[in-house]
Automatic annotation (TrEMBL):
<keyword id="KW-0808">Transferase</keyword>
<dbReference type="GO" id="GO:0032259">
    <property type="term" value="P:methylation"/>
</dbReference>
<dbReference type="Pfam" id="PF13489">
    <property type="entry name" value="Methyltransf_23"/>
</dbReference>
<feature type="coiled-coil region">
    <location>
        <begin position="234"/>
        <end position="282"/>
    </location>
</feature>
<keyword id="KW-0175">Coiled coil</keyword>
<dbReference type="GO" id="GO:0008168">
    <property type="term" value="F:methyltransferase activity"/>
</dbReference>
<dbReference type="InterPro" id="IPR029063">
    <property type="entry name" value="SAM-dependent_MTases_sf"/>
</dbReference>
<keyword id="KW-0489">Methyltransferase</keyword>
<protein>
    <submittedName>
        <fullName>Methyltransferase domain-containing protein</fullName>
    </submittedName>
</protein>
Length: 313
């Protein structure tokens, strides 16, 4: 992928796109667009580069792409070549996607707020906790849900972490975070029904598919839903671990601060103890000198004089 950070994105070649068309990540995107945009009349993809996934949403009549340079276009897709931050459409779009873009954007908070302005329904994705510096063009890694929430100023209506099978986990590039935003609460039952209806219509339109393929697709939907539930449990566990680690760090800092205070008090005790020893040594010295004077011949000779002085007083 070639990326110009100052220009946000982004051009990808056909080889890049062809290698990624079968990624699990795109299967989830397709699934969620069907779930939440089944009745959309128009859709805008922001930061599309020249990737063609918007063509999959063939039930949406008006499809638009936007990028600062060479957005994807076709007889079915209208492209808009401009800076998204300067984009001011007359009407809001029914649905907007912005996939694997935000990690490239310098003014990411402003960009995220702009996405919420152009539609009531927004689907975004970002690399999830990719190691900082693992991709030169990513300027915000690592990205997690907390960071995305700060960008958008709100929590998503729905989110999921997607893992790619057969990816090297050690490289830390096997997961993506997908977030969906809409103003009203999500009706999950209706969303799932939308997906089933959408796949069923496609099967009926293509006569080469039979009931076996229909059952296969519906079973796949159930498997995807179960995988989503497991990924949510993983995410919640990761959050719990992070909270524990944060508390452990706080306790360690508290212990460090307390140890420093204890050390300071111990130093004060040591100094005061040294003073006490010094004073006691001086006291012993004075007593010895006093005793020495009392036992001296001069003290005894002058004793009558001291007695007379006492009587005079």
């Amino acid at each position: 992928m070639e990326v110009n950070v100052l220009n946000y994105k982004v051009g990808v070649n056909d080889t890049y796109w062809n290698r990624r068309t079968n990624m699990m990540y795109y299967q989830y995107i397709d699934f969620l667009v069907r779930a939440f945009a089944i009745n959309a009349k128009n859709i805008l993809d922001v930061g599309t580069a020249n990737t063609a996934y918007i063509e999959n949403f063939d039930w949406i009549s008006d499809k638009y792409t936007l990028d600062i340079s060479k957005p994807y276009s076709s007889p079915n897709v209208t492209s808009i070549e401009m800076d998204f931050l300067e984009f001011n459409p007359e009407n809001r779009f029914d649905f907007v996607t912005c996939l694997q873009v935000l990690e490239h954007i310098p003014k990411v908070d402003e960009f995220a707020k702009k996405l919420l302005e152009v539609s009531d329904r927004l689907l975004i994705s970002v690399p999830y906790n990719w190691i900082e510096g693992s991709e030169d063009e990513h300027i915000h890694d690592p990205v997690d849900l907390d960071k995305v929430n700060k960008w958008f100023g709100r929590e998503p209506s729905y989110y999921i972490i997607v893992e790619e099978p057969l990816r090297d986990i050690k490289k830390g590039k096997h997961r993506r975070l997908i977030c969906y935003y809409q103003d009203e609460p999500v009706n999950y039952k209706k969303a799932l029904q939308n997906v089933k209806e959408g796949y069923t219509k496609e099967i009926k339109m293509n006569s080469e598919y039979g009931n076996s393929n229909q059952n296969l697709l519906l079973n796949t939907i159930d498997l995807l839903r179960k995988e989503q539930e497991m990924n949510h449990e993983i995410l919640e566990t990761e959050f719990a671990i992070r909270d524990i680690e944060t508390r452990l760090k706080e306790l360690r800092n508290e212990n460090k601060s307390k140890r420093q205070k204890i050390k300071a008090l111990e130093d004060q005790i040591k100094k005061q103890s040294e003073k006490i020893v010094l004073f006691r040594n001086k006291q012993k010295y004075c007593k010895r000198q006093y005793t020495k004077i009392q036992n001296s011949r001069a003290w005894k000779v002058t004793d009558p004089i001291r007695r007379i002085k006492k009587l005079v007083k």
